[in-house]
Amino acid sequence: MTSSSPAAAIATATQPQRRSRRGRFEPYLLIAPTVLLVLGLMVVPIVIVIGYSLFDNVVTNQNPQFVGVANYVAILGNPAFWNAVGNTLIFTVISVVIHLLIGIGFALMLNSKLVHGLPRTIFRAIYILPWIFTASVVAVLWRLLLDPSGVINYVLTTIGVLHQAVPWLATPATALISVTVINIWSGYPFFMISLLAGLQGVPSDLYEAARVDGAGLVRQFFSVTLPALRPIVYSMALLDLLWTTQQFTLIWATTGGGPINHTEVVSTFTYKLAFNSYQFSMASTSAVVILVASLFVAIFYVRQQKKASQS
Questions:
Q1: Residue 258 · residue 269 · CB < 8 Å
Q2: Between the CA of residue 70 and those of 59, 217, 242, 274, 289, what are the distances in Å?
Q3: What interhelical angle do 118-132 and 79-111 show, nearest 10?
Q4: 3-class SS at 66?
Q5: Is 147 left (phi over 0), alpha (psi -120 to 50) or beta?
Q6: Per CATH, the architecture of 78-310 is what?
Q7: What pLDDT is recorded for position 18?
Q8: Among residues 189, 237, 244, 311, which one has the fewest Cβ atoms lying within 10 Å of its Cβ?
Q9: Residue 1 pLDDT more than 50?
Q10: Is the Cβ–Cβ distance between 269 and 289 less than 8 Å?
Q11: pTM for the whole thing?
């Protein structure tokens, strides 16, 4: 019978320590690629843009001068900025509200027992079509439809609703509502699919208990369906609020912010400052203001998600 040497005993004792040390660093190694991507694609650009907003004019000026918050005072005192903010609020609020209403309506219809089998499959395919198209395709499609010689004007003049064709996207009175309708059409499937998934998760026992208590369809909707869907509705509404306020491609490809800035939103306003007027510092300032406003919505969204997970 031989006893282990001291060196072997020490090596055996240090192996668990090495494993524990390696196990301690493994999670950091796994998240390192994501952290580097976030730093490189988000944090660093945001810091650079904030830095640009504190100088008189960068990129075009070889020796930019530090001006502090002067750019913020200028942008907040610019009537064109507040016009863009007002258009953004109108565009966003109407889009989010109608997205929600249409989404709930179609989700209820597709979840109804009256629609089943092949008709339900066909309706699902038709209703989800707008979500398949990219924003540029949607813009081209609706520009053709809303053209003075397009299908919509032809139908409305044929049935007598209009006496002559209307350039919907080129008329100040109709341009903003037209791009809002386009955004509603392209975005409602997101609500519909999410709410349909939520409806299918509501226990049928709740509806049976409500019917036993004498509740009709309307009462069941407000007492059973809506409370069950409330967390989903909050999450979808806040996400849609963030996405819609940052909408750029659809508006740029349909109206470019015109006519006469009637569809100018904060995203197109910022883009024009940078690449039309070459005022990169002012564009950075506008972007920082938008970022701060979006952060408030994002923080509220995270808080709602935390509450929902804890309940």
A1: no
A2: 18, 58, 27, 17, 13
A3: 160
A4: strand
A5: beta
A6: Orthogonal Bundle (1.10)
A7: 60
A8: 311
A9: no
A10: no
A11: 0.84
Question: Which residues face 66 on adjacent strands?
Answer: 55
Q: Is the peptide bond before 259 cis (omega within 30 degrees of 0)?
A: yes
Residue 28 identity: Y
Angstrom CA distances, 185 to 165, 244, 299, stand at 22, 13, 28
The amino acid sitting at 61 is N
What is the distance between the alpha carbons of residues 76 and 152, in angstroms, rounded to a whole number?
40
DSSP state of 166: -
Contact 111, 221 (CB under 8 A): no
Strand partners of residue 55: 66
The residue written with tokens 């819609």 in the block is: 244
Structure tokens, 49 = 């843009």
Q: How far apart are CA 157 and CA 299, in angstroms?
A: 48
| Spatial distance between the Cα atoms of 283 and 147, rounded to a whole number of angstroms | 32
Rounded Cα–Cα distance for residues 221 and 219 (Å) = 5
Residues linked to residue 172 through DSSP beta bridges, in sequence order = none
Q: What is the Cα–Cα distance from 206 to 80, expressed in whole angstroms? A: 52
Burial status of residue 40 (CB atoms within 10 A of its CB: 0-12, 13-18, 19 or more)? exposed
Place of tokens 């750019």: 71
**What's the pLDDT tens digit per position in 105-117?**
998 888 887 777 7
64 contacts 57 by C-beta, under 8 angstroms:
yes
Q: Under a CB-based contact definition with an 8 Å cutoff, are residues 236 and 187 in contact?
A: no
Per-residue confidence (pLDDT) for residue 238, from 0 to 100 = 87
Q: Which residue has the tokens 């109407």?
A: 94
Segments making up each domain of the chain, as ranges: 1-42, 78-310
As a whole number of angstroms, the distance between CA 249 and CA 231 comes to 30
